[in-house]
Amino acid sequence: MPVAIRILRTVADVRAWRGTAHDVGLVPTMGALHDGHRALVERAVRESERAVASIFVNPTQFGPNEDHRAYPRNEAADLAMLELSGAAAFVPTTEDMYAPGDDTRVVPGDIASRLEGAARPGHFTGVCTVVAKLFEIVRPTRAYFGQKDFQQLRVIQTMVRDLGMQVRIVPCPIVRADDGLAFSSRNRYLTADERRPAAALSRGLFAARDAWDRGERDAAVLRSTVERIASEAGRPDYVSVADPVTLREVEGSAGRAVISLACRVGRARLIDNVLLGMSLDELARQ
Hints:
This protein has 286 residues and is of the alpha/beta class. It is built from 11 helices and 9 strands. Strand 8 and strand 9 (268-276) form a beta hairpin. The model has no long low-confidence stretch (mean pLDDT 96).
């Protein structure tokens, strides 16, 4: 039977909850929880002495024309999901995370400069800053991040390595709906008429994965395969065939690759990817 959820509102609450635990799992989220988050939290609960999910819509990772105020929020539903999982919830205010006059930021390196970093200037500075703050507050043994936000995963892995942070980053597989669409909080923006074409994004990625499995290694062919099918959903912002570790674009033959895309479908800007020639376990060791 699930127990009543432990809701932590302040840094002091987190420190008291953590106590002297030797093994703590953290799942950073911005709320609007879905089955992808559920999988991360359930894994953290299985693998940790204590597990906590943060719920915080981080203002510093949104650009001036992005959807910070409109970003979906439903704290009651989020807490209900976490209660069933057995994890605690850390639900800070903006003032808890960014005190007045707090202008310190964690600026990532080259790996954040392309793809989402190019499309959303400053985004990964906001991500790194809030994740670094969460790591300091929670002091987790492990932090769980989904493959769906692949570049975010690699940016955080690189930050942890470069700054010598004592936390293990655990990459977790993408969780998909029956139509193949990757679960995302922004899927809630899709109308019924937009949902069906949106599934073309994953179909394009799966077609490239099938071509890879048949022996195709030419990056241009893989890229065009995705573009042809994904265009049924709309014009992608980008389709990338990159090295999974450096995120630099591959030209010619690929020995391994992450094929990623971003595309606006109605109000929703959706991202997705497939990882080829490399496992998440191998990625975790980078």
